[in-house]
Design goal:
- The chain has helices at 7-13, 52-58, 60-77; strands at residues 20-23, 27-31, 39-45, 83-85, 101-105.
- The chain has 3 helices and 5 strands; from the N terminus they run αβββααββ.
- The longest helix has 18 residues, at 60-77.
- The chain starts with 6 loop residues before the first helix and ends in an 8-residue tail after the last strand.
- A hairpin with a 3-residue loop joins β1 and β2 (27-31).
- It is α+β, with helices and mostly antiparallel strands.
- The structure holds guanosine-5'-monophosphate and zinc ion.
């Protein structure tokens, strides 16, 4: 179920645009609107869960799918050096209360055409 007031639910349904990088059965990945590092992709579950801890208990299959999507993006977009972080709780820096992982890297993979 989705939350009508949640910005990431609106991105998941396409109501609000985002630069989508990849999708999977349970998750969507898109570029962070305000990148903190050269690679900064957010990975969210399609369904609304307030944070990663809740997601882990409510839908572990979706969490594994989300982790695999983020890991695949990291392999494709970085040299292999990256962080995959989940801020959980306002005091820990969470500002959007729809579970999301940040794939962050200072080491983008250089594409040679
Ligand atoms: P948090 O601080 O909750 O861990 O991360 C929320 C992230 O979502 C921030 O890095 C912020 O830049 C990003 N963000 C917030 N609103 C939007 C949006 O509308 N579109 C995109 N692409 N990113 C957003
Ligand atoms: Zn949501």
């Amino acid at each position: 179920m989705n939350d009508s007031n949640c910005i990431f639910c609106k991105i998941a349904t396409g109501e609000i645009p985002a630069k989508v990088v990849a999708e999977s059965k349970h998750a969507i990945a898109f570029h962070d609107i305000s990148p903190a590092q050269p690679v900064h992709v957010l990975v969210i579950p399609r369904e609304h869960h307030s944070n990663v801890a809740e997601l882990s208990f409510a839908d572990p299959e979706a969490l594994v799918d989300l982790m695999q999507l983020g890991s695949r993006i990291a392999a494709e977009h970085t040299t292999g050096a990256f962080r995959f972080t989940f801020n959980t709780g306002a005091e820990a820096g969470q500002t959007v209360f729809h579970a999301h992982g940040h794939v962050l890297s200072k080491n983008p993979k250089i594409q040679i055409d």
